[in-house]
Amino acid sequence: MSDQNILEMNQEETGLGKVEIAPEVIEVIAGIAASEVEGVAQMRGNFATGVVEKLGKKNHGKGVKVELSEEGIKVDVYCLMKFGVSIPAVAQSIQDNIRQALLNMTALETKEINIHVVGVLFENQKNEPDYEQEM
Asked: pTM (2 decimals)?
C-alpha cells in the first residue's frame, strides 16, 4: 500500500472488477465530516485554497492529510475551534464523526485520526481570511 497512491478495496470475488479509492476521496470525506461537528470554526487551509474558494470552487479536503501505510490509514486534521467550546470534547466528536463517515461510505477502518487544533476563533473575528489586494 505504501508504494501506491490508490487504495484497493478488499471485497468478495464477483467477477465484476475491482474498486479503488484515491486518498483524495478520503480527504474530502474526512474534511466534510470534521466541518460538520459543532464547535469547529473552520478547517485550516492555505493562501491557494482561499483564493480558489473565492473563485467559487469549494475545497472540502483542506486541512486534512491522509497517509496510507502497511499498518493502515492515518488521518491528520488541522482545524480552528470556536471560542468557549470544550476542545477535548469537540476533538473526540471530530474523531468519531470521521471514523463513522469513512466506515459508512468506504467500509474502511482507520488506524488513527489525529486532531491538530491550530487556533481559536472568537465570535467577532471573520471566519474566512480576506485575500483581496490593497491598492
From this structure: 0.74
